[in-house]
Design goal:
binds 2,5-anhydro-1,6-di-O-phosphono-D-mannitol, D-Maltodextrin-Binding Protein, domain 2, binds magnesium ion, Fructose-1,6-Bisphosphatase, Chain A, domain 1, globular, alpha+beta, 2 domains
Length: about 350
């Protein structure tokens, strides 16, 4: 626990002062984002009480997943909190097929916001943690028009900030602007996020692995071999590891960040002859990779650093293996057939 009481707003301002050239626009962008996630937190926390917002909305999103009503609410709040501040030139969301332009009546800004408004939403009805993930870039294209697809399809290493909010037993926001990773817990009575986890460092090696093991018949050989290794008995290297899998990326990565270990969503061949990944480059893999790397960890596809992946389309998917440095390095050795 931090000795000083520091609100998220103050923290964001202090981070800004590390960049004397900063105009304050970026700071205000993050403040607006904070409002959006507080609104989402309020609804998620009463999801069990308000039957109208429970259950499926009866449609599918562009990735073919069932859309929950809270997904739509979260999408709407993010858009409405962020469209008019004058910070953004374009947005994109996991819930929307194309890029999301800034409405004509509002001023354009310098930044690009990509987000997954409510990740893990299949868990909501069972009261399991869900989350919001965000990723911010500086605009790449020039001109007086709004931002374009080109502004959204970027290498993860170009992110200027990334973060997530986990709506769990308490609501926590974790973010980085490239100066370490900081975690804040929402005090619901104050409506303020307070610094609870300054400068998070992921342990270099953990003893927990996290993967949907039901997919194991469909994995590639290297992944199968690694998971087999992790489950062998060798107390000197903490093996067998414990298994924890929530099925909610934000919650699984959050635990991995705090306790160490490895989270994997590798490609699989659930569809015969087609090796496919599940998680999205832009809305899930890139922001999580920036956070985990900033905390001293590592994120890979198995053969490529996640932050080097340059998506060709908005909803592109990628294998994601992320967590403690030494655990992810070992996975890479197995995956590349070096062990
Ligand atoms: P979503 O964005 O549609 O909610 O899907 C992403 C979620 C992640 O939160 C989680 O890591 C993964 O899907 C779980 O997938 P599975 O149910 O195949 O294990
Ligand atoms: Mg998602």
């Amino acid at each position: 626990m931090s000795a000083k009481i520091v609100t998220l707003q103050r923290h964001i301002m202090e981070q800004q002062s590390l960049h004397p050239e900063a105009s304050g626009r970026f700071t205000r962008l993050l403040w607006d984002l904070t409002l959006a996630v507080k609104l989402i937190a309020r609804e998620v926390n009463k999801a069990g009480l308000v039957s109208e917002i429970m259950g499926a909305a009866g449609t599918e999103n562009v990735s073919g997943d069932q859309v929950m009503k809270l997904d739509q609410y979260a999408q709407d709040r993010m858009f409405k909190a962020m469209d008019h501040g004058g910070h953004l030139c374009v947005m994109a969301s996991e819930e929307v097929e194309g890029i999301i332009p800034i409405p004509e009546e509002f001023p354009l800004g310098h930044y690009v916001l990509l987000f997954d408004p409510l990740d893990g939403s299949s868990n909501i009805d069972a009261n399991v943690s869900v989350g919001t993930i965000f990723s911010i870039y500086a605009r790449k294209t020039r001109g007086r028009q709004g931002g374009t697809l080109e502004d959204c399809l970027r290498r993860g290493s170009e992110q200027v900030a990334a973060g997530y909010v986990v709506y769990g037993s308490s609501t926590m926001l974790v973010y980085t602007t490239g100066n370490g990773v900081h975690g804040f817990t929402l005090d619901p009575s104050l409506g303020e996020f307070l610094l609870s986890h300054p400068n998070i460092q992921i342990p270099p090696r953990g003893k927990i692995y996290s993967i949907n093991e039901g997919n194991s018949p469909y994995w590639e050989a290297g992944t199968k071999k690694y998971i087999q290794y992790i489950k062998e008995k060798d107390p000197a290297s903490n093996r067998p590891y414990s298994l924890r899998y929530i099925g909610s990326l934000v919650a699984d990565v959050h635990r991995t960040l705090l306790y160490g270990g490895i989270f994997l969503y590798p490609a699989d061949e659930k569809e015969a002859g087609k090796l496919k990944a599940k998680l999205r480059v832009t809305y899930e893999a890139h922001p999580m990779a920036m956070i985990v790397e900033q905390a001293g960890g590592r994120a890979t596809t198995g053969t490529q650093r996640i932050l080097e992946v340059e998506p060709k389309s908005l909803h592109e998917r990628v294998p994601l293996v992320i967590g403690s440095r030494d655990d992810v390095l070992l996975y890479e050795e197995f995956f590349q057939g070096k062990r």
